[in-house]
């Protein structure tokens, strides 16, 4: 199949001014794309051609290519991770596009995720949010039996649903407020539903929300765009969980 790509090219880190001054869309034609290629394999083919011509390849983030690491997200035709629901960019295949399609590819756009180069953004703001408390402290020792601490099935299911977040940032990129509440809500909800998460429950909720605000992410205004594009289909109810946990933490504090 043939495709025409319009890809954001940017040689240096964002300047935080008008992003249009930092780079531009560049048009490329590909004639030999197999419909079974993944979107990233199609970009590999483009890059091989660019390298052969002595041009700079397109920089894009990727690692697992199995939908589990969260590094590969880009905006495809204005939709985070492209047209298939519940699918990361690396798991998207070219058969999802028509022969002759014109496709627009851009990096995430959010003040807290500055563009490093081309389609690569710096998502270390998410790392700092996780460092603020998205973990449990445990005393090391002999491993315990997996069923030593019973967890009610309903709680295990809620925790597991939230734990599937891969930290890709699509929720932020798709939100008009660049809100990270689906991501942070997933972390808070995950631990709040497990017995192991109870010890640091209040400090976790407070610290994660404070770090999220400090990183410059916006507020949630119930647009539901985050839920629509999340490749792991994390539901917006985790944001309600986060808000409840934050209010609870404040009440316990006072
Ligand atoms: S909540 Fe979904 S969209 Fe947001 S970072 Fe996690 S997996 Fe990605
Ligand atoms: S490359 Fe790991 S989720 Fe896409």
Number of helices: 8
Biggest sheet statistics: 5 strands, mixed
Distance between the termini: 63 Å
Strand order of the largest sheet: 2-1-5-3-4
Helix content: 25-40%
Bound molecules: iron/sulfur cluster, FE2/S2 (inorganic) cluster
Order of helices and strands: EEHEEEEEHHHHHHH
> Would you tell me the overall average pLDDT?
95
List segments where confidence is low: pLDDT < 50 over at least 5 consecutive residues: none
Short synopsis of the structure:
The protein is of the alpha+beta class and 254 residues long. The chain has eight helices and seven strands. The strands form two sheets. A five-stranded mixed β-sheet has the order 2-1-5-3-4.
Describe what this molecule looks like in 3D:
With 254 residues, this protein is of the alpha+beta class. A five-stranded mixed sheet has the order 2-1-5-3-4. It has a two-stranded antiparallel ribbon with strand order 6-7. Strand 3 (75-76) and strand 4 (79-80) form a beta hairpin. Helix 5 (181-192) packs across helix 8 (237-253) and helix 6 crosses helix 8. It has helices at 39-52, 124-131, 153-163, 170-174, 181-192, 201-214, 225-229, 237-253; strands at 3-9, 24-30, 75-76, 79-80, 101-106, 115-117, 120-121. The longest helix has 17 residues, at 237-253. The radius of gyration is 20 Å and the shape is elongated. The protein binds iron/sulfur cluster (SF4) and FE2/S2 (inorganic) cluster. FE2/S2 (inorganic) cluster (FES) binds at residues 62-65, 67-72, 88-90.
